[in-house]
Design brief:
homodimer; 139 residues; alpha+beta; Arc Repressor Mutant, subunit A; three-stranded antiparallel beta sheet; three-stranded mixed beta sheet; 4 helices; 31% helix; binds manganese (II) ion; binds zinc ion; DNA-binding
DNA sequence: TTCTAGTTTAGAATTATTATAAACTAAGTA
DNA sequence: TACTTAGTTTATAATAATTCTAAACTAGAA
């Protein structure tokens, strides 16, 4: 068994967000963040991957709780693009996506790859919270 | 009871899409399309409004069936922006939206109000199906 | 070691949506 | 007009994603 170099970092990270570094949360941290590329996922998919070929499973409720906690703590970003299912993204920087309607997969588009040269003013009293573009693609 | 000027038009419209002009479909057509401004709605909201203070209700299943049929026929556009709930739009032209996270309401942004001066090329073998921007706003 | 607030868990509940199948009806034909 | 039937409506069941509940467990402070 390979111990993540980053384990201590995750412990600190969790503590700094007032989240106890439990076995389950650390396992999910390692799975989500011990990687170089952005990871996009649904809770269903994460649950399958986390619990594939393991002796002690993390419960689905904990996967949901943890993804929500990590999103609130700013470790993950929620992407609303699909009917009836939330996607999450380990890339928390502001950026855009391709959403493939066939494979139902998200791909990053770097923020600088889309130039919005004209953006409307929001209604009175309202502020823009988020301006990230999802480009739907298909074969 | 005021008879919609457009009733005959709706009958034709439905027939041209191979949809029988039933009482229920015509009632829903009048409710959705006898108006000047774009109407954005969820099925839940439409169901409430259609069945408010009426003797004979349209069943929820029919509301779902009809909204799906109208979307397939191109009378409505589906807007995926909210968690776990689909929105529909009587404005079928390509256009953008503000989505108010507080009131959970959509507002149109005319297509010309957002200028995308740089758009990335889709992955090989994939085509852009849709490029409509949702700007999330809040107080 | 003890204590407790925070966490995990199985399972129930909820919400949005889709499927099922019986009753009904639009509309073509005799 | 009556007959016929494919299409439609409807109540209800089923499904899928998510959230809630409450009991058991545990991290970490004292
Ligand atoms: Mn759903
Ligand atoms: Mn849901
Ligand atoms: Zn991303
Ligand atoms: Zn609109």
């Amino acid at each position: 068994m390979i111990i993540s170099h980053n384990l201590k970092m995750y412990v600190q990270k969790l503590r700094s967000s007032n989240l106890r570094p439990t076995k389950q949360r650390l396992k999910i941290c390692q799975f989500l963040f011990d990687r170089k590329k952005t990871f996009h996922f649904t809770v269903e998919a994460l649950n399958k991957k986390i619990n594939k070929n393991v002796a002690t499973k993390v419960s689905l409720a904990t996967i949901y709780n943890t993804v929500e906690a990590f999103t609130n703590a700013g470790y993950l970003k929620e992407i609303l693009t699909s009917k009836n299912k939330s996607y999450y993204d380990t890339n928390i920087k502001s950026h855009h996506h391709f959403y493939d309607e066939g494979s139902k997969e998200l791909t990053d588009i770097h923020y600088s790859q889309i130039k919005l040269s004209r953006v409307p003013v929001p209604p009175k009293g309202k502020k823009i919270k988020n301006l990230e573009v999802v480009i739907r693609i298909q074969k």
